[in-house]
């Protein structure tokens, strides 16, 4: 009988210890814990966020959610949006954000979801709405010529939405891809510009070469003219004497150095 009682006591102690291990959780650094009451008239979220440390709770009537307050980066699936003139653009967004400290209870009160579900659904829908709003204000040409303003407007809109919902925007990239027709048109325009520049450069090279030939011809003509003006009978006779080897020809007449003057 004593043995049975002892076994029962040990079993109760073990069950108690197991129960205690199930009644607490540790909120890691960089996270906020939110204690949620599942039953009762005051069902909801306590006023105080449970930050780092160990949290004790009743697993039958309460749950604890963890909300990371460090920066998270999410690469969302691409989606399509229509511009004001009907052109279809593809958006492949990436969002970097974090939960504002102390806002975890308010976020849970509103959405009744964990951070993962909120990130994958709610924030994704906010991103889609932000891009739809801005795309409806721009035509295709105005988006291309005002890309920076467009991107800034989308990011400003998204920043306001996230702040209102208890989040903080760190960075957002749109990954906007133009329609194929627009891309082909831009490529064709760029090729035309490059070809025009190439032709212009070739023309400049040809003109430079032509000017070089003209300068050379003018210089040669001027040199010939100067040589022609400098040649006279005495100069010719002097050059002849300087180049003569002093020998008289075997056949024919001997060279005459000076013209006979009557």
Task: Please explain how this structure is put together.
The chain is an alpha+beta fold and 262 residues long. The protein has three domains: 58 residues, no CATH class; 107 residues, Tetrahydropterin Synthase, Chain A; 34 residues. Helix content is 52%, strand content 19%. It contains seven helices and ten strands. The protein has a three-stranded antiparallel beta sheet with strand order 3-2-5, covered by helices on one side. The longest helix has 51 residues. The model has no long low-confidence stretch (mean pLDDT 78).
Number of strands: 10
Structural class: alpha+beta
Question: Mean pLDDT across all residues, rounded?
Answer: 78
Q: CATH topology of the largest domain, what is it called?
A: Tetrahydropterin Synthase, Chain A
Please describe the topology of this protein.
Blueprint: H1 2-21, E1 24-27, E2 31-37, E3 44-45, E4 53-56, E5 62-68, E6 72-75, E7 79-82, E8 88-91, E9 94-99, H2 104-111, H3 115-135, H4 140-145, H5 147-165, E10 167-173, H6 180-230, H7 233-243
Antiparallel strand pairs: 1-4, 2-3, 2-5, 6-9, 7-8, 9-10
Helix pairs in contact: 3-5
List keywords for this structure.
262 residues, alpha+beta, Tetrahydropterin Synthase, Chain A, 3 domains, 3-stranded antiparallel sheet, 7 helices, 19% strand
Give a brief outline of the structure.
The chain is α+β, with helices and mostly antiparallel strands and 262 residues long.
């Amino acid at each position: 009988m004593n043995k049975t009682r002892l076994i029962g006591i040990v079993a109760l102690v073990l069950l108690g210890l197991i129960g205690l291990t199930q009644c607490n959780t540790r909120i890691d650094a960089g996270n906020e814990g939110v204690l949620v009451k599942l039953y009762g008239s005051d069902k909801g979220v306590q006023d105080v966020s449970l930050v780092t440390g160990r949290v004790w709770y009743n697993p039958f009537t309460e749950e604890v959610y963890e909300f990371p307050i460090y920066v998270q980066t999410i690469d969302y699936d691409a989606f399509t949006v229509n511009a004001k003139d009907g052109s279809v653009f593809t958006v492949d967004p990436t969002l970097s954000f974090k939960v504002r400290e102390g806002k975890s209870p308010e976020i849970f009160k509103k959405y009744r979801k964990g951070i993962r579900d909120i990130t994958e659904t709610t924030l994704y829908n906010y991103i889609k709405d932000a891009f739809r709003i801005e795309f409806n204000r721009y035509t295709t040409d105005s988006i291309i010529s005002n890309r920076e303003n467009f991107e800034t407007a989308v990011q400003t809109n998204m920043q306001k939405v996230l702040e209102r919902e208890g989040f903080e925007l760190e960075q957002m990239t749109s990954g906007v891809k133009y329609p194929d027709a627009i891309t082909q048109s831009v490529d064709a325009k760029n090729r035309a510009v490059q070809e025009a520049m190439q032709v212009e450069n070739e023309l400049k090279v040809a003109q430079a070469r032509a000017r070089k030939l003209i300068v050379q011809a003018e210089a040669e003509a001027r040199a010939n003219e100067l040589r022609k003006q400098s040649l006279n009978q005495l100069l010719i006779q002097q050059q002849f004497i300087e180049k003569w080897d002093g020998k008289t020809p075997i056949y024919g007449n001997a060279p005459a150095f000076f013209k006979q003057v009557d």
